[in-house]
Design brief:
Radius of gyration: 37 Å
Organism: Mycoplasmopsis canis
Largest sheet: 6 strands, mixed
Protein name: Sugar ABC transporter, ATP-binding protein
InterPro entries: AAA+_ATPase, ABC_transporter-like_ATP-bd, ABC_transporter-like_CS, ABC_transpr_MalK/UgpC-like, Mo/tungstate-bd_C_term_dom, NA-bd_OB-fold, P-loop_NTPase
Number of helices: 18
Keywords: ATP-binding, Nucleotide-binding, Transport
Number of strands: 23
Distance between the termini: 73 Å
Shape: extended
GO molecular function: ATP binding; ATP hydrolysis activity
Strand order of the largest sheet: 6-7-8-3-9-10
Strand content: 15-25%
Helix content: 40-55%
């Protein structure tokens, strides 16, 4: 595929012509892209991102920015939307609405290949039939963009070597500047012009994409509603089955008890209702919609009649049969109700889908017409196809012109044969040697990149092994090596440490941090482990219920949690909460008045006051203290101990103490709250409230 693409480009290149108008356009684009590249923009930006799966809103209006070169962790419990957000950034799923930007460029509709990212999966996803070397080399052998960048890197090195010799052979500063400028324009145009075209396409496709999404969502929501209805019917039927089973057990137990104690009524009889039960009450029939309502009314009446029977008057066999018949009737009733409700849903969405399809077809037609008629887009499309080839041809034309003018090839040939001494001085020879490192074949470039990354992640000794012969930690390193070998601008990691043991997790996360910092790759890391997030991150995005709860540095989230969820999710052991009240400007924590603490922005209200487990001020029984509790659990971690303390009117609270404090289960513990380290939350909204204190 890559060979075919290169061949097509060769044919296109031979057909283009270098003219003044094309060179003028190249200069205009070059100036535009140069200005844009100097602007400070985030590496990743999410704008009002929504991902709707029908039954659930997986990502709810998420917006945040990730600065260049930072390691950002998406942290949250299962189902919070963190992995879905990561997959959206990667391009592995379609967003419902919103935008994803990489360095200011809209990539919302780009495939993962076009986004130029590295991805480390939870399960490593290595190719078992390939060696470690081949696994790492695989993306380089199959990535046209990387190969083109490597080609440009080689051509840049060759051009600098060429310039060194041309300067020695008498080329003017203007000629050297022209040659460098021609290469820079070719390089920048090749990279940024396709991005500009994609951005323009994204602008034009926006309304069409929205109409398409709304049309798809109408079908998704219909299916999810029917699916939810089906689940409810199954739950109802299961409950009926269980209730019937329990009722039968009770009936049998009561009958046997009454029989044993001579409490059975005299002249037990058979149930008349069982002798001639119409089939319509026990068998499902396919009915017209207007008949279903009539049938459900009949079934409700029959079920009520069954329930009104005094079972104590019946023989045991008929008692059981009545209960089983009641179960059948109620299940049949549920089925008819399901059919009725399903029909309502289908009718409701039939109208909606028709409207959305009409809107989609119209938007599709308008989009198709726009693509044909929009002059700016079509001109840009033509430029994106031709100008990089023209810029390349112009560069090589200048190269050929200057090489002929100053007889560069003849000079190099004579120098190689030893007919003339080298025109370069010693410093220039050193520079030549450095530049020659990039003047290599593609095969050599791939080998160099594999060996460089293998050295960096310390797996050189296992390069010839197959992944099945490696430990979990080694497989993880190979997975990361494969992700970073292309030197992606963005690295995405989905819970990469979850399959490792505790000790290896700690060493691997430290190693990942070192690699990330040394390469300066913008990294998005997903985990549910708050300790992992705190230790590895520059920025944490804490998520819950599909929303971003708080974004900031690890210490910002730990020391100033925005709400109760963040406060309790971050920190081990979990933060303790004391039920509190603000009354007449005074703060009462579990009934104790906290003097010297004021909440100027709050009036009378119910509050929760949180304290980190390590922040309690421990007192002696002879001291003046605020609270007393009883130790009910004690866990020793070596240098410190975790206590679970039961406090009257509060409940269980976690403490983390130095082992110099020797508490045992059953001991009383006396303590004060630290007024300078309180976390106060509104009991209703659970949002953080600022407070003031004086010593």
């Amino acid at each position: 595929m890559i060979i075919l693409k290169k061949l097509i480009n060769k044919l296109k290149e031979s057909s283009v012509k270098v003219d003044e108008l094309s060179l003028k356009k190249i200069n205009q684009y070059f100036d535009e892209f140069n200005v844009a590249s100097q602007e400070e923009v985030p590496a990743i930006e999410l704008k009002n991102l929504n991902i709707d799966f029908g039954e659930t809103l997986a990502v709810d209006n998420v917006s945040f920015k990730i600065p260049e070169g930072k390691l950002v962790t998406l942290l949250g419990p299962s189902g919070s939307g963190k992995t879905t957000t990561l997959n959206a950034i990667a391009g592995l799923l379609t967003v419902t609405s919103g935008k994803i930007l990489f360095k200011g460029k809209d990539v919302t509709d780009f495939t993962p290949q076009k986004r130029k990212i590295g991805f480390v999966f939870q399960n490593y996803a290595l190719y078992p039939h390939l060696s470690v070397y081949a696994n790492i080399a695989f993306p380089l052998k199959n990535d046209y963009n990387w190969q083109f960048k490597t080609f440009l890197k080689r051509e840049k090195a060759r051009n600098e070597i060429r310039i060194m010799y041309l300067e020695k052979l008498g080329a003017t500063k203007e000629e050297i500047s022209e040659l460098r400028s021609a290469f820079s324009k070719w390089e920048l145009i090749s990279e940024d012009l396709p991005h500009k075209l994609n951005k323009e396409y994204a602008r034009l496709v926006d309304s069409y994409e929205k109409a398409h999404t709304e049309f798809k969502l109408a079908g998704v929501h219909e299916t999810s509603k029917i699916s939810l209805l089906t689940k409810n019917v199954l739950k109802t039927n299961e409950k009926l089955r269980k209730d019937s089973k329990e009722k039968l057990a009770r009936i049998t137990e009561k009958y046997n008890s009454d029989l044993k104690n001579n409490l059975l009524r005299a002249n037990l009889k058979e149930a008349e209702i069982l002798k001639n039960v119409p089939s319509k009450f026990i068998k499902y029939e396919s009915l017209a919609h207007e008949k279903i309502s009539e049938r459900t009314t009949e079934l409700n009446s029959f079920a009520a009649e069954l329930m009104s029977i005094d079972l104590d008057d019946l023989v045991l066999k008929d008692r059981k049969l009545v209960v089983k018949l009641e179960e059948k009737v109620l299940k049949l009733l549920t089925r008819y109700k399901f059919i009725e409700k399903q029909k309502e849903i289908i009718e409701e969405y039939a109208i909606l889908k028709k409207e959305k399809q009409a809107a989609y077809n119209l938007a599709k037609k308008e989009f198709s017409n726009t693509l044909k008629s929009d002059k700016e887009y079509n001109e840009l499309k033509k430029d994106a196809l031709t100008l990089p080839l023209i810029a390349k041809k112009h560069f090589y034309t200048l190269v050929s012109s200057f090489e002929n003018k100053y007889k560069l090839k003849e000079t190099l040939q004579k120098e190689r044969k030893g007919e003339i001494p080298s025109v370069l001085n010693e410093d220039e020879k050193v520079k030549l040697k450095e530049l020659s490192r990039d003047n290599i074949s593609l095969k050599k470039a791939i080998h160099n990149e594999v060996m460089e990354v293998a050295n960096r992640v310390e797996i050189v000794k296992i390069l010839q092994k197959k992944p099945t012969r490696l430990s979990g930690g080694q497989q993880q390193r190979v997975s990361i090596a494969r992700a970073i070998v292309k030197k992606p601008e963005i690295l995405l990691m989905d819970e990469p440490l979850s399959n490792l043991d505790a000790k290896l997790r700690i060493s691997t996360r430290q190693w990942i941090r070192e690699i990330q910092q040394s390469l300066g790759i913008t990294t998005v890391f997903v985990t549910h482990d708050q300790e992992e997030a705190m230790s590895i991150s520059d920025i944490i995005v804490c998520m819950s219920t599909a929303k971003v709860q708080q974004l900031g540095s690890p210490l910002e989230l730990y020391n100033k949690p925005k709400n109760q969820f963040v406060a309790r999710f971050l920190g081990m052991p979990e933060m303790g909460l004391f039920p509190s009240e603000l009354k007449d400007g005074k703060l009462f924590v579990a009934g104790f008045e906290m003097k010297n603490v004021s909440l100027p922005e709050k009036s009378n209200s119910s509050l929760n006051v949180g304290v980190r487990s390590e922040d309690y001020i421990i007192k002696k029984s002879t001291d003046k203290y605020m609270f007393k509790g009883e130790v009910i659990v004690q866990e020793n971690f070596g240098k410190e101990s975790k206590l679970v303390v039961k406090i009257e009117n509060v409940g269980r609270i976690n403490f983390l103490l130095d082992n110099s404090e020797n508490y045992k289960v059953g001991d009383s513990i006396y303590f004060d709250l630290p007024i300078h380290k309180l976390h106060i939350f509104d009991a209703a909204s659970e949002e953080r409230i600022s407070y003031e204190f004086s010593e």
